[in-house]
Amino acid sequence: MFLQVDPAECCRVINQKDECSCPPMQKNQIILNSLIVYIVEVYSKLDDSTVTVRVDCEDLQAELNSTRDKLYKQFAEDTENNETIFYWIEDRSSLLLRSRFILYTYISDEGLTKVASWFAGENYKLLPGVTLEPLKMFFRIGTALAVPWTLPKLHPDTGEQLVNEEGQPLYEGYCIDLIEKLSEAMNFEYEIVTPKVGGFGKKLPNGTWDGVVGDLMVGETDIAVGALTMTAEREEVIDFVAPYFEQTGILIVIRKPIRKTSLFKFMTVLRTEVWLSIVAALVLTGFMIWLLEKYSPYSARNNPDAYPYPCREFTLKESFWFALTSFTPQGGGEAPKALSGRTLVAAYWLFVVLMLATFTANLAAFLTVERMQTPVSSLEQLARQSRINYTVVESSSVHQYFINMKFAEDTLYRVWKEITLNATSDQAQYRVWDYPIREQYGHILLAINASGPVPDAKTGFQQVNEHADADFAFIHDSAEIKYEVTRNCNLTEVGEVFAEQPYAIAVQQGSRLQEDISRALLELQKERFLEQMASKYWNETARQACPDADESEGITLESLGGVFIATLFGLGLAMITLAWEVLYYKRKEKTKIHTLDVKPKPKPFAQTKKNLEKLTGVVKLRKRDVAKTAKLGKDTVTIGDTFKPAKGVSYISVFPKNEYRP
């Protein structure tokens, strides 16, 4: 769209048709001649009695300027009908050419088209059937690459950055979506511009700025939209609009420590010397049970008549088995009968209960703490330790924060020392060496310089991911760290956010866009657009894809697989023992001497008679024994009686003593 003075203006001045030809070099002369003629005509209309001899346009005296006032009024009267080629402006006391203006615009289908025509001093008039829409404003918007704020839009197959029809690179991210929404609300077109030097901007020694702030400061861009924090240094050279993102700050990120899996993890709950002590206690207890059972006069072995039922015989093998099975919920079975043996077993059982409780509690705490532990939990702990190295992005706002804090520490120490040295009163109350001035940020900055600042955030996250032992940390913007943590299962946040500052859009100092953008942001907040954008890029559900996203997960097989291996080992050992028992039994059967069943020869009658007499005496004797035994109430078995198997007596059964009275 452009505005043009009617090229046929010269023809109208000389009272000719529009098709006349006015040479360009003669236009000014023709207009000047017409102006002189018009002034003479107007002056001649004045009353001669009121006209002075001369007119001084510069002199303000009333007697000399009455003619001037009358002349001005006459100009106003003659130009009211809009038919003259000149018109009068009373406020400016000027006589101007009544030019005809023509407005053209470009229409895609029709090309350059005339849409309006009007004379100077009038409002513009659109031609019949023509409607105009306001032109869209055009802004150059500066930004810097940052995840997830501004990212190059890549081709899904080739991975190369996409470009538009004009060959300009395309971007995507939170800020790009925000810019697109603002362009719709404010009706403007834009071009994304990235800085040629620097990132978001740092102050140079000569007082100038580079990066996004520098481009906005010198007018290379009109608006700056990105992960730009509001700082006092930047507000000296640019103006910030209302914040568009919630409070952000600085956060620490490290790699999750890789837990060393071991099938016999449960064995590490107790130290080796403790396990050896348990084995020694088991062996010693088994041996002492056998020793006490053997030499105690009140044991079941040495005094079997004192117990009316068969008791457990504590051999050396049985004693060790009792000591071993006492560690199980089933228990060791029947205990020794002697008081000395029972005293030993009671003390041993107390030892077993305490050891089992200690092992169970320590195993639960060991496996729980192992899942939840992190190397450090705050910036203070990170500064006090020396195992974990850490870094920041060079010349970033985070880097500048630690530089400023170190300067504050140095200034505080210097001022306090000067107060101490210059004090006229008792210097004991200003003892600088006793004041706990912490040089925390100075130590942090030294560690950062030792590790070396990284050029960008991508390099920082990559270095953290490469240190599988969690011995490297990256201090960066909290919003970017939270975004990366939701998409990388190996990373975890450490501590709380500190040094909180908001993100805001920036404009040039004194720009009228500040109020327009602020109103547009308020409308977007009412529409909850900013909340929708935050939930889009910081979606916590993306972390559910991580295999260990839930800290309350169960114990893995890698941690307790040794328990199953021990069970399988016992099963295998039992099968080997069974094979050995079978082989041993077969070999013993082969070496056993078998007797032949040979029928004896018939004996003489005399010998048979003697045998019968002896048998009769035995029967009488047995009858007497049976009668005697009946008094005792005991069952007897005689020759010829039907065989009845005796009832088995359990080792842990207790019979009433009144049933076994002699």
Give a short synopsis of this structure.
This protein is α+β, with helices and mostly antiparallel strands and 662 residues long. The protein has helices at residues 9-13, 27-44, 62-78, 174-186, 211-218, 232-235, 272-295, 316-325, 339-372, 379-384, 397-422, 440-451, 457-466, 478-485, 513-526, 529-537, 557-591, 605-632, and strands spanning 2-5, 86-89, 94-97, 100-107, 111-119, 137-142, 151-152, 171-172, 188-193, 223-224, 239-255, 389-391, 472-477, 491-507. α7 (272-295) packs across α8 and α11 crosses α12 (440-451).
Overview of the structural elements:
- Among the domains are: 2-119, no CATH class; 562-593.
- Helices cover 42% and strands 14% of the residues.
- The protein has helices spanning 9-13, 27-44, 62-78, 174-186, 211-218, 232-235, 272-295, 316-325, 339-372, 379-384, 397-422, 440-451, 457-466, 478-485, 513-526, 529-537, 557-591, 605-632; strands at 2-5, 86-89, 94-97, 100-107, 111-119, 137-142, 151-152, 171-172, 188-193, 223-224, 239-255, 389-391, 472-477, 491-507.
- The chain has a seven-stranded mixed sheet with strand order 9-6-10-14-11-13-12, sandwiched between helices. It has a three-stranded antiparallel sheet with strand order 1-4-5, with no helix packed on it.
- The chain is elongated and about 170 Å long.
- It starts with a strand and ends in a 30-residue tail after the last helix.
- 18% of the residues are buried.
